[in-house]
Design brief:
Radius of gyration: 17 Å
Number of helices: 10
Number of strands: 8
Strand content: 15-25%
Order of helices and strands: HEHEHEHEHHEHEHEHEH
Strand order of the largest sheet: 1-2-3-4-5-6-7-8
Helix content: 40-55%
Shape: globular
Distance between the termini: 28 Å
Largest sheet: 8 strands, parallel, barrel
Length: 241
């Protein structure tokens, strides 16, 4: 099936009971490399039903998601430099530009993690600002994944400061592919560093309503999860992301 032929998902008249407020925080996520079109359309249908904030997918699925979500109010999100961040800045920028041209409303980029570990704020700012310029040129939003599990607290602070200075819209904890995940302590540290002006996204290992509520209490304004349905239904998810 071509992207152009993908049918739109219709928003359900009523979402899941009790899903309203927490669902609006959730980027419903499918980043498994083996995911196919049927899987992608399923998460789009779920996002429309439950009223999630966005559907987050790999770049090859952006057109499919954008078409499927038309008229639902759910945003289309994609990733660049994912999941390692070890891609040259010009390649990340090209990838981001392609994602927004395909219809992404939001882009989640992975930083140069080696630069963060080395404390090289200048390299981080250069990496992030180039992608931010490409994303913002189309009116889209940039979230910056700092991969907290691989950084010390001081390195996390440096990465968050770089994101602020480079013009990012959000900082985000994790890819979910490199161990660790979101913690309330990291969210609080990131919020304290970026102040009230930027979004903070908790991702990686958020699997339950209690997890999500703890992240929001610590300062998160967005939750990245593939367990979104379990979260809004008060159940325990099993996904690592």
């Amino acid at each position: 099936m071509s992207n152009e032929a993908t049918p739109s998902v219709q928003t359900a008249a009523t979402g899941a009971a009790g899903s309203g407020s927490i669902a609006s925080y959730i980027d419903h996520t499918l980043l498994k490399p083996e995911a196919g079109e049927a899987d992608v359309l399923q998460v789009c249908a779920e996002a429309a039903e439950y009223g999630f904030k966005s559907v987050c997918v790999n770049p090859i699925w952006v057109k499919t998601v954008k078409t499927a979500l038309r008229g639902t109010g759910v945003l289309t999100c994609s990733v660049v430099g994912f999941p390692l961040g070890a891609t040259p800045t010009d390649v990340k920028t090209f990838e981001a530009r392609g994602a927004v041209l395909d219809g992404a409303d939001e882009v989640d980029m992975v930083i140069n993690i080696a630069a963060a570990r080395a404390g090289d704020k200048g390299a981080l700012i250069e990496d992030i600002s180039s992608v931010a310029e490409a994303v913002h040129a189309s009116g889209a939003i940039l979230k910056v994944i700092i991969e907290t599990a691989l950084l010390t607290d001081s390195q996390k602070v440096t990465a968050c400061e770089a994101a602020v200075e480079a013009g990012a819209d959000f900082v985000k904890t994790s890819t979910g592919f490199n161990g660790g995940g979101a913690t309330a302590e990291d969210i609080a540290l990131m919020r304290a560093t970026v102040g009230p002006g930027l979004g903070v996204k908790a991702s990686g290992g958020v699997r339950s309503l209690a997890d999500a509520q703890a992240m929001i209490a610590a300062g998160a304004t967005r939750i990245g999860a593939s367990s979104g349905i379990a979260i809004v239904n008060g159940e325990q998810g099993s996904s690592s992301y």
